[in-house]
Amino acid sequence: MSIRVAIAQINPRLGDLQANLSLYEEKIRQGIKERADLLVFPELSLTGYYLRDMVPSVALSDRSPEMRKLKQLSREIPFVAGLVEESADHRFFNSAVYFEDGAVRHVHRKVYLPTYGMFDEQRYFARGDRIRAFDSKFGRIAMLVCEDLWHPSTIYLAALDGALAVICPSSSPLRGIVDEQSQDDNARYWEMINRANAETFSLFMIYGNRVGFEDGVGFWGGSEIVDPFGQRIAKAKYYEEAFLVGDVTLESVRRKRTMAPLLRDEDLDLTINELMRIRERPVAQKQVQKFKSSKVQHRGKSKQK
């Protein structure tokens, strides 16, 4: 099965839902014109990234008119949106939402919220607590949002849950010295892990990054699609808006996993047992220290007698 995947590498307006929704409509029309089967938008592209205290004012619930509009648009083409989701208990999540045939089919809430350097996401967003692959009309896929993919456990779980492709919406900023001849440090690292993950877990990596500037911070673009053999199918330009299209042939997953059946041979029980051991280790160490401390105190009391 071949899927024509498009990535809208756009420059959204910070805090302007209506302008960005219009941009979504424009790119969806372009996707239909390009005969794309699936369209991917970057992380928080419906709102802009550096929202800070604007988060509650741009958050969407299932009852929001913007959500109804997005569902309606998905009757034309399935797509992944990056938005602020408000839960029923009024928590706010940095979410990737998969729309298909007029409905929300899956929501991934960003699990790893960066708080280092220029990032302060955990101050404004709640953390997601699950990673799931899901069934779409194209097959089983998973979504991870930007920083999620820098943690090896996330794609490991997605692959074990049956994902044939992982979609990663991103708002990755410029880092390092950049000019027309050099490559941004973030871009270099992202391209390395996209290729390594695709080849290691025998799946497609669909990485959609944004461009533009917010609050003095730039975003490098460079969206790409990488096949299970680590080969780049399509690549967008750096630092400027683009509409990337590439053909994803899921038969490649079968071929690669037949040649290198690493997922088949993965010992899940071993992994679970060792993780449980590691999780309990700090508790065990504290208990040993407490026991030693109590013995020392007991000896001290004995000498006093």
Any overview of this molecule?
This protein is an alpha/beta fold and 305 residues long. The chain folds into 2 domains: 2-266, 4-Layer Sandwich (Nitrilase/N-carbamoyl-D-aminoacid amidohydrolase); 267-305. 35% of the residues lie in helices and 25% in strands. Strands 5-4-3-2-1-14 form a 6-stranded mixed β-sheet. A 6-stranded mixed β-sheet has the order 6-7-8-9-12-13, with helices on one face. α4 links the parallel β7 and β8. The longest helix has 37 residues, at 268-304.
Q: Give the CATH superfamily of the largest domain.
A: Carbon-nitrogen hydrolase
Count of separate structural domains: 2
pLDDT below 50 for ≥5 consecutive residues: which ranges? none
- Report how far apart the termini are: 83 Å
Strand-helix topology:
Blueprint: E1 2-9, H1 17-33, E2 38-40, H2 55-58, H3 65-73, E3 79-86, E4 92-100, E5 103-109, E6 133-136, E7 139-143, H4 152-160, E8 165-169, H5 185-201, E9 204-208, E10 211-214, E11 217-220, E12 224-226, E13 232-235, E14 242-249, H6 251-259, H7 262-265, H8 268-304
Parallel strand pairs: 1-2, 2-3, 7-8, 8-9
Antiparallel strand pairs: 1-14, 3-4, 4-5, 6-7, 9-12, 10-11, 12-13
